[in-house]
Q: What sequence folds into this?
């Protein structure tokens, strides 16, 4: 798919901070037009009038010449070359319910979702291929240590664009590269996607232990053990050679586990401090993908039987209502 000297039309599905950050990055390109779908009509009206998202990253000014907002997904994807999915995994089916395979025919689909489709327990790219007939080689995922808040501040960031075929990843990586973002292509679609899902669960565990009063020494051991856990699961699900110490894997894990901007760490911290799951969800404005991912990975691992002590500890706390203090006390005996 060549876009040399042509206008590239990109539909973005989702109205949160990550969707807004991605649009900011894409607007750095001269030949890009954004077709943006948001669920909230109030936000749509505000963006049309004032050219910024009132609910997320409100300091980011969006060019009205490059960004057009739509109420219907069918209108947003019309004529688009790429469709970026940037909604929480729990809402991806609902957000795309009015689209059919015909609407997405001939388009490349990009998942900016670091979560699994709940209940189905499958990757977002797998769901897109299954339900909309998009060939796997025409899908890719956005991963890497890159918080939306730092994109808004134009702090140097790095992304990994992964696909089963290098040309797809290379094309989209070029679109996501600008003066403050370096984007690199990878051909490990499923490994990157599974690692991105797992790191949210680990960030929850880090938040829980921090809320319980554990210090930096314990957190370092937890994260190093978590990297082994991620590697074991990813290998069981998609065995191939991959460098797990690269930024797409380890870098993403580190920033999500330690950053002040990590919603999964924040959610876990609230649980560790004594909040119930529902109380923590109500207090947070944004979705913590790790909550849903924990259940999905737990269900998947019933088949593969990989040793996942950290993931299982988080599952015991969130879904089996075990005491965080007691569960982490058991977990720390398994770490090395």
A:
């Amino acid at each position: 798919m060549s876009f040399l000297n042509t206008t590239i039309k990109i539909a973005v599905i989702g109205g949160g901070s990550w969707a807004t950050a991605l649009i900011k990055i894409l607007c750095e390109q001269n030949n890009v037009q954004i077709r943006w779908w948001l669920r909230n009509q109030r936000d749509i009206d505000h963006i049309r009038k004032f050219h910024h998202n009132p609910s997320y990253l409100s300091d980011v000014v969006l060019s009205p010449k490059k960004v057009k907002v739509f109420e219907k997904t069918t209108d947003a994807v019309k004529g688009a070359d790429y469709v970026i999915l940037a909604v929480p995994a729990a809402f991806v089916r609902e957000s795309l319910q009015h689209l059919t395979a015909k609407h997405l025919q001939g388009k490349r689909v990009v998942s900016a979702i670091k979560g699994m489709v709940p209940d189905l327990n499958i990757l977002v790219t797998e769901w897109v291929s299954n339900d909309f007939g998009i060939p796997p080689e025409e899908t890719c995922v956005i991963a890497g240590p890159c918080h939306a808040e730092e994109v808004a501040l134009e702090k140097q960031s790095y992304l990994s664009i992964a696909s089963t075929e290098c040309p797809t990843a290379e094309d989209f990586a070029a679109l996501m590269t600008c003066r403050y973002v370096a984007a690199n292509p990878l051909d490990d679609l499923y490994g990157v996607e599974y690692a991105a899902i797992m790191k949210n669960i680990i960030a929850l565990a880090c938040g829980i232990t921090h809320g319980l009063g554990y210090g930096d020494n314990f957190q370092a051991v937890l994260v190093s053990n978590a990297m082994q856990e991620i590697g074991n699961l990813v290998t069981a699900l998609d065995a191939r050679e991959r460098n797990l110490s690269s930024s797409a894997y380890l870098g993403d894990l580190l920033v999500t586990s330690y950053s002040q901007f990590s919603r999964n760490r924040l959610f876990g911290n609230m649980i560790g401090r004594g909040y119930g799951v529902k109380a923590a969800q109500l207090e947070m404005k944004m979705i913590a993908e790790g909550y849903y991912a924990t259940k999905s990975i737990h269900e998947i691992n019933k088949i593969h039987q990989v040793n996942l002590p950290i993931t299982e500890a988080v599952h015991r706390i969130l879904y089996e209502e075990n005491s965080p203090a007691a569960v982490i006390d058991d977990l720390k005996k398994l770490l090395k």
